[in-house]
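Worked example 4.2. Below are the chains of a multi-component assembly; read each line carefully before continuing.
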Amino acid sequence: MAQEQIRQDTRVSIRTPRARVSGLGVAHHGVSHWWLQRITAVTNLVLMLAFVVIIANMAGRNYAEAAHIVANPFVSIILILALLSVTLHMRIGMQVIIEDYVHAQATKIVAVFANNVYAVLVAVACLYAVLRISFGQLA
Amino acid sequence: MAPTARPTVAQPLSPHLQIYRWTWTMAMSVFHRITGTALYGGTALVAIWLLALASGPVAYSYVAGFFGSVIGRLILFVYTWILMHHMLGGLRHFAWDFGIGFDREKRLAMSRLTLIGSVALTLIIWAVALLVR
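Applying the procedure described above to all two chains together yields the following structure tokens:
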């Protein structure tokens, strides 16, 4: 099929196929994962230190006090940013580990898929919980 | 392309982890992955804790009770140390990303600092948390 089209299709873009794939590598993503891992590492650094302070403040408190702390807009926003940053970071990190140690193609696809499911599940669960606590305090 | 037959003779394999003498940099590199994996699983605990808080006082009392117990506190203590270790390991990687700390003395010092610093930070965090309380 590829042989039939000898001349490159320039209807959509005047960029050559060579230019289109330049710098993307075998993963077709280029260095996007590498960059996102560094960027989320920086945001994790700040957000997780704040997270530790929040958790330490909540230890030993009763339900009403704990919910009140999480419902604080600043705390809610920090928690949401932290969970987004962390789940993005851990998703890439685990994918790198899978790609390093799992070589059978089928197992690798299943493992990477499971990794994505876990990361999204944790992110959505935490996001839902924080928003519910936060908005629940308004009522 | 002709199919390539697998050679029947035993070919030499490149040596793996169990062959090498353990060094500080190697140990801390392996540990960075292990702590990363532990934190990966640990996010489930954060999700459980937040969902319990969102579910109401009864659910929260169970989860808070568990984290307040001896086992729960031990998990949180180790979790703090793992988090600090991964954080300092990440800072080490940042130094390397900027081309700093590749010579023998520096990389050895940074590897040792990762371990010593993570233990120190963990103790400081818990001391402050317990003293302020």
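Take a moment to check your reading of the output against the notes. Chain A has a mean pLDDT of 89. The longest helix of chain A spans residues 105-136.
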